[in-house]
Amino acid sequence: MPPFFVIAIDGPTASGKGTLARRLARHLGFAHLDSGLLYRAVGLALLKRGQEPADKMAAVAAAQALDPSGLSDPALRSEETGKAASVVAALPEVRAALLDFQRRFAATPPGGAPGAVLDGRDIGTVVCPDANAKIFLDAGVEERAARREKELRERGAPIIEGAVLRDLQERDARDRNRAVAPLVRAGDAYVLDTTGMDAEQAFSKALAYLRSRGL
Ligand code: CDP
């Protein structure tokens, strides 16, 4: 068992990982790492330089040069960046370059926090296989698309009819089928299907599970 309580939350796009992770971290006083932001930052670095996300050398160089302390660019949140992120995330060398930072975050949570919540795709399987608690968050694809559309609308981003669902299915497929660290449920993860649930219900269920894990 790690010295700090580590919570791994994995799941597909728009399954509510970020909302749940942030909420748990705030409630417990834990540090939170949105690992997707790291991949998004690599994707965005390439887009800004006019390079292709599939350009392996450029992607690996960007991942190795990444400063994880300054991830506040609003462009990180765009759908275009999310798509680029899932392309660079399929490259093993990119994943390797980002691994140490994530493991260190879990091993010594910043700010003297008593624990850490990390969310992503491979936290429970690859980054922190010894996490004290693992949640695999899921929801039906239509509902996830509706949640993402709502999020985009609230941000004032343009929405093209049907495009969000299509992009989400494409990204799910890429994340699930890649050879390295694919999106897959860890065998010892608690599966939380939030279809038809609101954020409050998901939070209560997650908390009950964490209590059962000795939190
Ligand atoms: O917020 P959303 O679910 O759309 O995506 P994200 O968590 O920000 O992740 C963006 C992309 O980064 C994903 O589609 C994955 O391809 C990749 N990612 C990953 O491969 N491993 C992680 N631990 C986190 C994200």
Q: What key phrases describe this protein's structure?
A:
single chain, 215 residues, alpha/beta, Rossmann fold, globular
Number of domains: 1
> Number of helical segments?
9
- Poorly predicted tracts of residues: none
Biggest pleated sheet: 5 strands, parallel
Can you count the beta strands?
5
- Cofactors and ligands: cytidine-5'-diphosphate
- Oligomeric state of the chains in view: single chain
Mean pLDDT: 95
What can be said about this structure in brief?
With 215 residues, the protein is an alpha/beta fold. It is 51% helix and 12% strand.
Structure description:
The protein is 51% helix and 12% strand. By secondary structure, it is α/β, with parallel strands linked by helices. The protein has one domain: Rossmann fold, CATH 3.40.50.300. A five-stranded parallel sheet has the order 2-3-1-4-5, sandwiched between helices. The longest helix is centred in the middle third of the chain and has 16 residues, at 92-107. The radius of gyration is 16 Å and the shape is globular. It binds cytidine-5'-diphosphate. Residues 13-14, 18, 35-36, 39-40, 82, 85-86, 89, 120-123, 171, 175 line the site of cytidine-5'-diphosphate.
Give the SSE map.
Layout: E1 5-10, H1 17-28, E2 31-34, H2 35-48, H3 56-65, H4 79-88, H5 92-107, E3 115-120, H6 123-127, E4 133-138, H7 141-154, H8 163-177, E5 190-193, H9 199-212
Parallel strand pairs: 1-3, 1-4, 2-3, 4-5
The protein binds cytidine-5'-diphosphate (CDP).
